[in-house]
Design goal:
Largest sheet: none
Order of helices and strands: HHHHHH
Strand content: under 5%
Number of strands: 0
Number of helices: 6
CATH class: Mainly Alpha
CATH superfamily: Ferritin, core subunit, four-helix bundle
Number of domains: 1
Amino acid sequence: MKSVTAIALLALTGTVPAMAQNAPQTPGLHARTASATYASMAASSDNYEIESSKLMLGAATNPDVRQFAQMMIDDHTRTSAQLMAAARAANAGTTNLLPPEAAMLKALRAAGKDNMERLYVDQQVKAHEKALALHQGYADQGDNPGLRAVAEAAVPIIQHHLDEIRRIQSAMGAPAPD
């Protein structure tokens, strides 16, 4: 029963061991899907970073949070432009905001002034952890050279952001409970 459950989970995630693959995957279709998925997820991440940070510039009182928000706007505007150019060249579409980022932005807008700054910091940690995994994964295994170059260039920037926001979060105390 355990092996049936494990195989079912692997099938749902799309991760199938090499020995279980009977038919070869169609490289063109797989490549197109991977590029488009990466481009949409990266664009959504950048757009969330920019929009949430614009919100915080008007609301934050903590100078570290304000400085971080400005860095997000500046850096993610640049990475977004690079992504858009590479996505156009790869014929991979992008998305403004995917549901997870749209939900975080909605929650941030709905947060009261007393809670907004803390929520922003906690969201930024999670968003940057997710973005780092996305870009590292595509940089290592991406199928489009142009998008791979964008991902490789984004990794150290996102790592720097993650280090900074974790420092700010630590200075503010433990993260708020989910």
